[in-house]
Design a protein that fits this description.
There is one protein chain. The protein contains two helices and six strands; from the N terminus they run αββββαββ. The chain is an alpha/beta fold and about 120 residues long. The two termini are about 15 Å apart.
Length: about 120
Amino acid sequence: MDARLPTWIWVDALLARVRDAGAAAFVTQKGDRERGDVLVKVATLDRMARAFAKRTNMDGVSVFVDLAVQGVGPDEASVDDYVFRAKERDSDLWIIEIEDRAGRHFLTEPVEGKEGSAG
């Protein structure tokens, strides 16, 4: 996400990309409108899911990390447990849930991790 782009605008753009592609997306928690971080859950509707969290890499660039590298998932219950704990830690966090049988995340930012390039 652009350092100056308000989070709510970024979220609206993600939701539009998802819906334009024929998938479903929901905001399950609204965070800080201007500077809230974002956690994206992608459910494939077969009890499997992945989660992606915004981080800053070693070069100072904002990226999304496929949390599978931290052992989150691939079962949806594990991802939901992580999401629940993240909500408890950060009330300014935006939680976006995408439902897509193909498992696309629709992120345009760089994604790092096991299978981060799928999207």
